[in-house]
Write a structure and sequence with these properties.
- The complex is a heterodimer of chains A (about 375) and B (about 130).
- Chain A is α+β, with helices and mostly antiparallel strands and about 375 residues long.
- Chain A has helices at about 10-15, 35-45, 65-70, 120-130, 150-160, 205-210, 220-230, 255-260, 265-275, and strands at about 20, 25-30, 45-50, 55-60, 85-90, 95-105, 110-115, 135-140, 140-150, 170-175, 180-185, 195-200, 215, 280-285, 300, 305-315, 320-330, 340-345, 345-355.
- Chain A contains 9 helices and 19 strands.
- In chain A, the strands form 4 sheets. Chain A has a 6-stranded mixed β-sheet with strand order 10-11-12-9-3-13. A 6-stranded antiparallel beta barrel of chain A has the order 14-17-16-15-18-19.
- The radius of gyration of chain A is 21 Å and the shape is globular.
- The termini of chain A are far apart.
- Chain B is of the alpha+beta class and about 130 residues long.
- Chain B has one domain: OB fold (Dihydrolipoamide Acetyltransferase, E2P), CATH 2.40.50.100.
- Chain B contains 4 helices and 9 strands; from the N terminus they run βββαβββββααβα.
- Chain B has a 6-stranded antiparallel β-sheet with strand order 1-2-3-9-8-5.
- In chain B, strand 2 (about 10-15) and strand 3 (about 20-25) form a beta hairpin.
- Chain B starts with a strand and ends with a helix.
- Classes of the chains: A alpha+beta (about 375), B alpha+beta (about 130).
- The interface of A and B includes residues 35, 290, 292 and 315 of A.
């Protein structure tokens, strides 16, 4: 398969995007403003992100669909209300994370937003657990636009009345340009905002409106600095199939009922880790000074013992300091623990830090 | 100061007596994007021509800065280490990286003039 483009490719080009290959797509890494300005625009005003490369995967079926999905997704899908969303994962037999995702209850079943790089493999995995009364499809006729930042609600409400009533992690159908579209109040930046699922035919009109209302285009570069400041994981870096939700410090995303009753992939292992703790755990890291600890930077204890590694690291424009996250032996995971980071052969001081680095402002 | 000379790795150098001032080019900063970390060498460090001398990091990635000429470092520019973003503002002026006492002025002959460098950038856009 050749390199794919989203429906907005030409528009990105006209906005001065620099493209990079990402998960088989040509995606904008930044526009004319550059990563830092794009990041700040999102935090102080509003930005839009074309995330149409992500999979919009729809499942339909009878009541047995919930049971099938609960084998691989540790959410309480049985109790999930219509139009409510949960952050969760697809798990393998060993409790490892195949992908992280947002699952939303729809009229006919569920919609799952999958990472672009994982979506094909995810669908193969999910389909193994489905029965003949279940159907599924990846909707490639839909674009997905994230609108993020404190002004998002005011701007989108002008175009699509009613969106301001959505609470964080809920969604609904709205009408726009004589078409039905689905909007959730969610995102990946630590800001208030929306994710808008809209047909490839209408998406350009929506973007034209947003641009006219001062919303800036934001590339993958700022998407990464925003999510890292917000302490959110990036699959393939902070999460992978060898890491389970307890190690990833994401046990909050396993439903309480499911922790007790189990019945999902890797449960016996996860149950054991929930009781006894894991050997390593994901933490936030603040390097001292300005040095940036990037992915694969080795972490040492104060006594020189190698105790972990960085999985994401960058400069955080809103916190105005370098930030990172990584995995560290659990006995060193207490907030404030002094560590050393080996960068270009030199050791730099750092501290285990609370996550997120940047405080969220979701509408609850 | 002498006219600036340029390297294929996007450093510039200008000479005053036997002291060379080295920095990265405007073109380099445009490719890098927002600069968020700079490490400059300490005075006294010996550096060979094309040897690794400093580090510059943007929001995207880390890159080494090489010295286009051999010599002993007399000064690293602490101002840019304290304010890395300033390199995006004036890379070929106030935001120089380090100064060197040079060993061999003839090494400058292998570097490019401004016109040659501009042509080189056009032919090698990345």
């Amino acid at each position: 398969m050749g390199v794919q483009k989203t429906a907005l490719y030409d528009l990105h080009k006209s906005l001065g995007a620099k493209f990079v290959p990402f998960a088989g797509y040509e995606m904008p890494i930044q526009y004319r403003d550059g990563i830092v300005k794009e990041h700040i625009s999102t935090r102080t005003h509003a930005g839009f992100f074309d995330v149409s490369h992500m999979g919009q995967f729809f499942l339909e079926g009878d009541e047995s669909l919930v049971e099938a999905l609960e084998k691989i997704i540790p959410s309480d899908l049985k109790s999930l209300q219509l139009n409510h969303s949960k952050y969760s994962f697809l798990l393998n037999d060993n409790g490892g994370i195949i992908d992280d995702l947002i699952i939303t209850k729809t009229n006919k079943g569920f919609c799952i937003i999958l990472n672009a790089a994982c979506k094909e493999n995810d669908i193969k995995h999910i389909s193994k657990f489905l029965g003949k009364n279940h159907s599924y499809f990846l909707n490639n006729d839909l674009s997905l636009i994230a609108l993020q930042g404190p002004k998002s609600v005011e701007i989108l409400e002008k175009l699509i009345p009613g969106v301001s009533e959505l609470k964080f992690m809920t969604g609904n159908n709205f009408s726009y340009d004589s078409e039905s579209l689905y909007i959730t109040r969610s995102g990946y930046t630590g800001e208030d905002g929306f994710e808008i699922s809209i047909s490839n035919k209408k998406v350009k009109n929506l973007i034209d409106f947003l641009i006219k209302n001062g919303v800036k285009p934001i590339g993958l570069g700022a998407r990464d600095t925003l999510r890292l400041e917000a302490g959110l994981c990036l699959y393939g870096h902070d999460l992978n199939e060898k890491i389970n939700p307890v190690e990833a410090n994401l046990k909050w995303a396993i439903a309480k009922k499911r922790k007790e009753a189990g019945g999902f992939n890797g449960w016996s292992k996860i149950k054991n880790l929930l009781t006894n703790g894991s050997e390593k755990i994901r933490v936030g890291i603040k390097p001292e000074g300005k040095v940036i600890a990037r992915e694969n930077t080795k972490i040492y204890s104060y006594n020189g013992e190698e105790i972990g590694f960085v999985t994401s690291g960058t400069f955080g424009p809103s916190v105005n300091r370098p930030v990172a996250m990584g995995y560290i032996k659990s006995e060193f995971s207490e907030i404030g623990t002094s560590i050393q980071l080996e960068i270009r052969g030199k050791k730099y001081e750092g501290k285990v830090s609370e996550l997120p680095f940047y405080k969220k402002s979701y509408v609850k | 100061m002498s006219e600036k000379k340029f390297s294929k790795k996007h450093e510039w150098v200008s000479l005053e007596g036997d002291i060379a001032t080295v920095g990265i080019t405007k073109h380099a900063t445009e490719m890098l994007g927002d600069i968020v970390f700079v490490e400059v060498p300490d005075a006294g460090k010996s550096i060979e021509k094309e040897g690794q001398a400093a580090v510059v990091e943007s929001t995207k990635a880390a890159s080494d800065v090489y010295s286009p000429i051999s010599g002993e470092v007399t000064e690293g520019n602490k101002a840019i280490a304290d304010d890395p973003g300033s390199v995006n503002g004036d890379p070929e002026g106030a935001s120089w990286f380090f100064k060197l006492k040079i060993k061999n002025k003839a090494e400058l002959d292998s570097l490019m003039s401004k016109d040659e460098y501009d042509k080189f950038c056009k032919e090698n856009p990345n």
